[in-house]
Amino acid sequence: MLTLKGGSRPPWVGLGAAVWVQIASGNTFTFPLYSHSLKSVLGFNQRQLTLLGVANDIGENVGLIPGLACNKFPPWLILCVGSLASFLGYGLLWLAVTQTLPNLPYLLLWFALVIASNSSAWLTTAVLVTNMRNFPVSRGKVAGILKGYGGLSAAVFTEIYSIVLHSSSTKFLLFLAIGIPVVCFSMMFLVRPCTPASDEDSTANCHFIFIQVSSVVLGLYLLVTTIFGNALQLSDTVSYILVAVMILLLMAPIAVPIKMTLFPKRASNSDSPDQRLGSSDSLVQGRDEKIEPLLASSSAGNLGGFNDQDDSSEVAMLLALGEGAVKQKKRRPKRGEDFKFTEAIIKADFWLLFLVYFVGVGTGVTVLNNLAQIGIAQGEEDTTILLSIFSFCNFVGRLGGGVVSEHFVRTKTIPRTAWMTCTQIIMLIVYLLFAFAVKGALYPAIAFLGVCYGVQVSIMIPTVSELFGLKHFGVLSNFMAVGNPLGALLFSALLAGYIYDNEAAKQHGINLFASGAACVGANCFKLTFFILAGVCAAGIILSIILTMRIRPVYQMLYAGGSFRLPQTSSSH
């Protein structure tokens, strides 16, 4: 059992440190920055390159082992494993690209990229699971903030790549191999499980708003400086000043615990240990008084009778939702309670959410993995600006998805998945714009796609925790994330890569099919985008069905405009 750190400051310290780790975990978004070097130096064709992109996505999203480990080991140990994976994976890629170790087998490089990108799964799981548990009643905001910074990480790395490293892929791979472990070792003991509060006061809300605003300022700053850095020749002094400002903006979330230290809040009754979720004493005290009526109430629909009770009734409701109160009578958990993995995978809602997420991120990552080739096919030689735009808009979607869904789920009890429906409609339109290669639509289409892609990620995470609980959240959310590499394999490697190389062969001659020749023109990806649009149409239908099915769950969980937190069972 992990030891919980008491006090009101530690969760905010952990959230500030988690921002840095989440930035480091976004290393998988940087594949377009060095993919061209893998293709040119090592002589890969587009299909081989897209298979490396699939390796990148597999490593990032196959996180079942980190998900299981986060319930057994402290976060610092999870971060250590992620750091080691990054060092070994990116280190080997650096040795290959610099020809220090020439003629390495393609399969070895493929597995090296899987290991390197798998560092993201370990880092993300450590900070996300820890902070979701530290802020259980603000999970939408926390997921939006952390995933927002994760999406913004591509712009952070692009800034370093273009300004500090002067667009050198070899230097950048070395930076990833060394820089990510340095960040993790610096922050690992600050990210720790803490005793969470059972409610969210106005002060906490202000803290979240400050972090959200500071992240938006950072995103705008990165977008502007990246564009100007590509358009203008900046001196080394100016470049390092720009990076220093970026580092200061990254440190903004730490201002919250500093403020709490300098201006401590006066203790109140609401801050007493008995009202902490992590305090089992209050639950034990209430167990003897409330056990009889709780055993008689096994239906989630009967929870409405507790709405107007005092704090002791709230504790009774938490016990009724926890399996610990009904040990003598085993029953399957209801939606909103804690599910084991084996219990969740037999639920229709679980697979509906998986399929909807698979469609959203699977099609979106296909564009991301082929972003450089899509830009070149439409006449854009410098694709770093495209990546910066996608990164910033991905950040906006992740942060905005969490904030907007949190607002409407509290005020209107609208399920978060409704926003996955809306964004996938937009994605369908964007894919049609790509398919017809509408003149002048490349940059706006990339921007809209970035936002929609980000929303898929930030919506899935709190939805999993709300439907299936926080007890096994790490395993469940990481299983959902498998939709990303699965989509990349089907849509990027097997579909887009084959169609691209086939079109390139038609343009340059059939004998050049395996030589890595570039394809130019709308036909390079036309058929791919038509298929992606059709897949999105199916995803829209599934998301509508899912939203209608889970609406009663949200009406139960958010009755009265506040989240009713089911108690985590110790035996579950």
Short description:
This protein is mainly α and 572 residues long.
Description:
The protein is an all-alpha fold and 572 residues long. 70% of the residues lie in helices and 0% in strands. It has helices at residues 10-25, 31-42, 46-61, 64-69, 75-97, 106-134, 139-164, 169-187, 202-231, 236-250, 255-262, 280-296, 311-321, 341-344, 348-369, 371-377, 384-411, 417-435, 442-468, 473-480, 483-508, 526-557. The longest helix has 32 residues, at 526-557. Residues 269-310 and 567-572 have low confidence and may be disordered.
Mean pLDDT: 80
Largest sheet: none
Low-confidence stretches: 269-310, 567-572
The number of helices is 22
Query: What is the C-alpha radius of gyration, as a whole number of Å?
Result: 24 Å
Query: How large a portion of the residues is in β-strands, by DSSP E?
Result: under 5%
Class of secondary structure makeup: mainly alpha
Amino- and carboxy-terminal Cα gap:
14 Å
| Number of beta strands | 0
Summarize the helix and strand pattern as letters. HHHHHHHHHHHHHHHHHHHHHH
Shape field: globular
| Share in helix | over 70%
